[in-house]
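SAMPLE LOG
Freezer: B-3
Tube label: C17
Construct: single chain, 111 aa
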Amino acid sequence: MAQLITKTKLYLNANSKTWDDTKVTLQNNSDGNGDFIASWSYDIAQPTADQLASYETAGNAEEANASIDATRRKQYGEFKHQLEMIYKDQKNGTTTFKDHCDKVRSDNPKS
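STRUCTURE (predicted):
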């Protein structure tokens, strides 16, 4: 189940707005009712529960892809190692860096 913050960001993006912590506050009162929008000061209507629910599938995909991106960043390695691979590839006429990137992407496909 997609988080409220993800669905809210998708709603904002669909309405040509970006997330701004000063314009929206999400809250959870730990009363079993879950997260909710506590304050809203955008110049568009606050989304209804149905509107937010319509972003469930897209939100799930967004969160899954964010997790995959984080894994890929780890596996790509530090920039200095990437630059070293690129340098050696140019010097030796090899494709080590490209092969490494292709493997990281194929091992961690996006949905």
